[in-house]
Amino acid sequence: MTGQDCAPGSGTSGFPSERALSAKPDVVMVAVADLLDADSPRTGGVDAAHVQNLAESATELPPIIVHRATMRVIDGVHRVRAAIARGDDRIAAQFFDGSEEEAFVVAVHRNSAHGLPLSNADRTAAAGRILRSHPQWSDRRIAKIAGLSDKTVGTIRRRLPVAVPVQRIGRDGRRRPVSARAGRLRAGELLDRRPDAPLSEVAAEAGIALSTARDVRRRLKAGEGPIPPKQQLASKPSRPAGHEAAPVSVPAQAGPGQVLPDLRDLARDPALRATADGRAVLRLLSLHTQTAAHWERLIVRLPPYSRTTVARLARHCARTWDAVARRLEGDRAVDRF
Predict the structure, then answer these.
(1) Is 313 left (phi over 0), alpha (psi -120 to 50) or beta?
(2) What is the pLDDT of residues 307-336, one digit of tens each?
């Protein structure tokens, strides 16, 4: 899988799977016959010329790395093949204890950094697999492992039907919101459930700065939404090719000329602003009384695979709001939403 200069315990990074190797586990001799082929990021298989070079080398080769649970070779398939070519029935190895997903990450990272280089196609395919198993990792974190640029990883992420987490874990292990909007929305949800929660806890859980959490609390107490108007009017992103969304048509009565003044009047009402339930209503109304342009910006951001689900949920929300409206207008027949 990799060349002879890939010694475990050297050049370890901040990734948990690599830190597990930094302790320099004991080197043991294992039977070559007990080893299984690697779950390798190399789509082209073993390089025969590289195996021959290793077999003829007089230099002592570093221990291979073996996944203890499966006996698969994580790092060193070419060294195993060289040992077989020389007639050796045992080889020096170090065991790795972790999940199969973590073992694959170690394999990709080491093959990207040392020995026989991975092809660009191999790196790209490996990055896609890591995105599927670790969608919460940041683009830069995965780029460091696969030996790609973070922009390339971002492009791969947008093409895959992977989960979109509120937060991502960076190369330093810290959690950060995918966007300032996502972090503010998360903080708003936390403060809605626990209005008196310490801001330090809210900031840590939402992955935002303490000053941002403080601003979210101030806005909620003022009857406003957690997101400032400037962030709500973020620039329109480009649409993915082949996934054009039809423009949103909003009824005239829902335009800002009628709705926004009503919302401002409600936001000034002390009876609503003084209670958690009142503030919750104001926030819900603020989120849902958006202009057609704003909804269009949101829609074009959606990944294509999620649109059917979002449409189904949107219709559910519409039915719920209609039931709420009829209940408020005195329709006692509406007893559930």
Answers:
(1) alpha
(2) 788 888 888 888 888 888 888 887 766 656
| 8 A C-beta contact, residue 178 and residue 168 | yes
| Neighbour tally for 104: CB within 10 Å | 24
Contacts for 218 with CB less than 8 Å, ≥ 6 apart:
none
Mean pLDDT of 159-165: 69
Q: Which long-range contacts (CB under 8 A, 24 or more apart) does 290-299 make?
A: 290/232, 291/250, 291/255, 291/256, 292/247, 292/248, 292/249, 292/250, 294/232, 294/233, 295/248, 295/250, 296/236, 296/245, 296/247, 296/248, 297/234, 297/236, 297/237, 299/245, 299/248
Tell me the CA distances in angstroms from 278 to 113, 148, 166, one per residue in order. Answer: 56, 49, 26
pLDDT at residue number 90: 92
CA separation (Å) from 16 to 13, 56, 169, 321, 336? 8, 35, 12, 46, 48
Query: Which residue type occupies 51?
Result: V
CA distance 38 to 41: 9
Strand pairing report for 90-96 and 167-169: unpaired
For residue 153, give every residue at least 6 positions away whose Cβ sits within 8 Å of its Cβ, in sequence order, or none.
Answer: 127, 131, 139, 140, 142, 143, 146
Distance, in Å, from the CA atom of 113 to the CA atom of 6, rounded to the nearest integer, reads 8
0.85 surpassed by pTM = no
- Cα–Cα distance, 56 to 326 (Å, whole number): 83
Give the pLDDT confidence score for residue 242 in this predicted structure: 40
* Total residue count of the chain as it appears in this document: 337
**Is a pLDDT exceeding 70 seen at residue 14?**
no
More confident residue, 18 or 111: 111
